[in-house]
Amino acid sequence: MRTFACLAVPAVCLAFAFSASRARAEVYRCVLDGGHISYQQMPCDAQSQPLDLKDQPSGWSPLRPGERKLLNSYLEKDAARRRQPADRPGKPVTESTACWKKRKQLDAVRARLHRGYKLQEGDALHRKHDDYEDYLRQFCS
Fold it and tell me: N or C terminus: which one in the chain shows less Cβ crowding within 10 Å?
């Protein structure tokens, strides 16, 4: 008996909530003196008929054809990308010794610039930084 009471109370509450959300008041359109239009819950006169209101569903709307086509193209590109074999991780890309040294020098200059420097060193550090970046851009990938 107790289990039935525990299940009956939520069932009644849910039924009441859903029935209350479906209920709506009747709306009447009335033309007032001077041509003004009024919408109200009470009929304007004896011949007044309630308006037929269409219930608009809330939530997500389906995709339009163009949106569906775009989504499918993205999904196909993603699937094709996943099907491609990955490069072999065991074969590292080798870099020339000169490029490796320039990258290390650039890292040292950047660290020095971030750490702080004296006023006289500033121009020389910035010049070295630009030179190293130009070298790497020109000769290294």
Answer: N
How much of the chain, in percent, has pLDDT values that exceed 90? 35
Dist. CA 27–CA 29, nearest whole Å = 7
- What's the rounded Cα separation, in Å, for the pair 91 and 123? 41
The residue length of the chain stands at 141
**b/e per residue, 76-108, with b = 16+ CB within 10 A?**
eeeeeeeeeeeeeeeeeeeeeeeeeebeebbee
Residue range 11-20, pLDDT digits in tens:
555 555 555 4
The predicted-structure confidence for 14-43, as pLDDT tens digits, reads as follows 555 555 445 567 899 888 888 888 889 988
What was the pLDDT predicted at 52? Answer: 86
CA-to-CA distance for 53 and 39, rounded, in angstroms?
12
State yes or no: pLDDT of 78 exceeds 80. Answer: yes
Say which residue the tokens 């040294």 belong to: 101
Helices (H), the chain: 2-22, 65-83, 97-115, 119-139
**Cα–Cα distance for residue pair 82/79, rounded to 1 Å:** 5
